[in-house]
Amino acid sequence: EVQLVESGGGLVQPGGSLRLSCAASGFTFSSYAMNWVRQAPGKGLEWVSYISSSSGTRYYADSVKGRFTISRDNAKNSLYLQMNSLRDEDTAVYYCVREETYFDYWGQGTLVTVSS
Amino acid sequence: DIQMTQSPSSLSASVGDRVTITCRASQNINTYLNWYQQKPGEAPKLLIYSASSLQSGVPSRFSGSVSGTDFTLTISSLQPEDFATYYCQQSYSSSSFGQGTKLEIK
């Protein structure tokens, strides 16, 4: 069974940093591209970042470019999102998502709250 | 960047109704269009991929179609468990989502 389990969310002050993790199991992690998608409270889905299976290609939404960094460790079956210079508008549930040109498996999400 | 315009933003319907949700891409995305269903407090669930392919385990009352840059999700006969929010997503160039359609009980 495919499982994606996010961790690392919490309350952080504006300008602060946070690192999200996603532990993957039930599939060959190193064969799949992965993404982070977020959802602000009461709002729609927003794609955040993409990383290819080998880490050779990474994409970011304009809203996080230069502040967030996506990475992965295929030996540990883990995906990461380093978030720096956090803003109020980054408050959201962050989902770890497996890609097969479509997003077929999603984690349950981890809540990040940016507030003073 | 590719913009996805989804309509309507909300919709009221009754059990047994036929419902259609539309998504328009700002440029050609071939058939790299996917549909998701999200219920409150849950992660989104993939319904349709590549514009018209039904994800395994999804009821056949869900279907997708395409005409140029216009994509449609149709639910042929609404069931109580279908009341949720639906999103389209393009995966042609990185990714982007439509604004969502909240389907409510009339």
Q: What's the number of helices of chain A? A: 0
Into which percent range does the helicity of residues of chain A fall? Answer: under 10%
Quaternary state of the chains: heterodimer
Radius of gyration of chain B: 13 Å
Structural class of chain B: mainly beta
Uncertain segments of chain B of ≥5 residues (pLDDT<50)? none
User: Any low-confidence stretches of chain A, pLDDT <50, length ≥5?
Assistant: none
Give the terminus-to-terminus CA distance of chain A: 40 Å
Q: What is the percentage of strand-forming residues of chain A?
A: over 45%
Q: Overall 3D geometry of chain B?
A: globular
Largest sheet of chain B: 7 strands, mixed
Helix content of chain B: under 10%
Beta-strand segment tally of chain B: 11
- Name the biggest interface: A-B, 19 and 22 residues
Structure explained in plain terms:
The complex is a heterodimer of chains A (116) and B (106). Chain A is 0% helix and 53% strand. By secondary structure, chain A is mostly beta strands. In chain A, strands 2, 4, 5, 6, 9, 10 and 11 form a seven-stranded mixed beta sheet that branches. Chain A has a four-stranded antiparallel beta sheet with strand order 1-3-8-7, with no helix packed on it. Chain A is globular. The model of chain B has no long low-confidence stretch (mean pLDDT 97). In chain B, strand 7 and strand 8 (70-75) form a beta hairpin.
